[in-house]
Amino acid sequence: MEGNKVRRFLFLLSILVILFASWSYIGKPADKASFQTAFNHLDSQMTTIKENPDVSAAVDKLSSGLDQLLGQLDKTLDPPRQEQQQSDLEQIEKPSLATPTEDVFTVYNIGLGDSKDMVEKQVGAAKRSSYNEYGVEWHAYHKDYQNFMMAAYDENNKVAGLYSNQDLIASTKGIKRGSSKESVLGKLGEPLSKIRKGMVYYQFEKDRDYEMYLIDGSYVTVFFDKHQKNTVTSIQIISEKLEQNRKGFYTQESEQLKQGFEYQLFDVTNAARVNHQLPVLSWDNHVKETARKHSDDMADNNYFNHTNQEGQSPFDRMQEDEVVFNVAGENLASGQFSSIFAHEGLMNSLGHRENILKKDYEYLGVGVAFDDKSKPYYTENFYTN
Asked: How many CA atoms lie within 13 A of 284 on its CB side?
């Protein structure tokens, strides 16, 4: 009997060692090694029609007058966009954040266990509800993407998950958006280095832009912005029970989850743009299909690249799908188990961050697909016409 216990222990230990080695190897940033990562693939590309030197001078001369004319045409021909631009100018008051009394962290003065009725009495009805990796829905609350947060509820309509990438974080530890990573580590102590799913431990990559803690029965993930001196940029709080709903590192693919990841990546992208005083992007179903097809192609054929196996660039694919653009860009990510983790990784990669925060963009379509191991591939297509 003792021999069986020893063999079982050694077997589990070997699994942990293998997973640690695998995660650490393939989790390194692609620009620091000769291989592509499987858990943290990122890439971006941009182009404009002004790249043609023959038309560049003419475009520059006409740009001022055209911008003014097109601005007037937008107001006439695209009323929804007009309303959105007007609302962007209206600054919504940030709520007064109270120090939590029952939780270490709250978002918008909301903590785990609060009722859905209480949440919506405080922040209004959700703007969108979409399926997530925990088998429940993220409910997105905001006013034109200001005061943005997402909440997930359990079977009793009690808060079981929270996320925000805006200045809505309060803590008994004095941690808030903009706090330094050093202060977070000093106040919260040693973060988790792995998480258990069934009989398998998944080791977090060493070069990560977040730290995860198990605090009073909830998994708290604090994300940091490497381009803002490693300060807190967002937080995700998931109850221990809800975390256990996610049986593996990846969630089994479904059409619901594809659509959920697509809308969630769109929403958190707009919330990030609002943080930088940029206009929000409009969802575009047309280019979303272009993005979805590229994610499908990468997942089905096991590659990760802006150029597909037929030699088409993102802009070739957009033109083939009759998407009319004069400025366009594409972000790719692969292997992050949710849109939140994908977005946070993209924001910490300079080229992708520039796409997300490019002032000129007006439209965004997001396409998500899964390979045969349920690993997600994310494609973001931005453009202006």
From this structure: 25
Cα(325)–Cα(382) distance, integer angstroms = 9
Where residue 264 falls among pLDDT bands split at 50, 70, 90? very high
Query: How large is the average pLDDT for residues 338-351?
Result: 97
- Say if residues 18 and 7 touch (Cβ distance below 8 Å): no
Taking the C-alpha atoms of residue 382 and residue 282, their distance in angstroms, rounded to an integer, is 10
pLDDT band at 89 (very low <50, low <70, confident <90, very high): low
Measured on CA atoms in the order 225, 229, 231, 233, is the torsion positive or negative? negative
Phi, psi of 107 (to 5 degrees): -125, 120
Tell me how far apart the alpha carbons of residues 317 and 211 are, in angstroms, rounded to a whole number.
37
Q: Which two tokens stand for residue 242?
A: 């809800």
Rounded to whole angstroms, how far apart are CA atoms 328 and 49? Answer: 9
Break the chain into its structural domains and give their ranges. 1-75, 105-245, 255-384
- DSSP annotation of 252: P
Does domain 255-384 fall under CATH 3.40.33.10? My reply is yes
255-384 has the same fold as 105-245: yes
Exposure string of 23-44, with b = 16+ CB inside 10 Å and e = fewer, is: beebbbeeeeeeebbbbbbbbb
CA–CA distance, 266 with 283 (Å, rounded to integer)? 8
Distance CA 352, CA 42 (A): 8
Write down the mean pLDDT value for the chain.
Answer: 83
CATH code of the domain occupying 105-245: 3.40.33.10
Torsion of CA 213, 216, 218, 219, to 10 degrees: 0
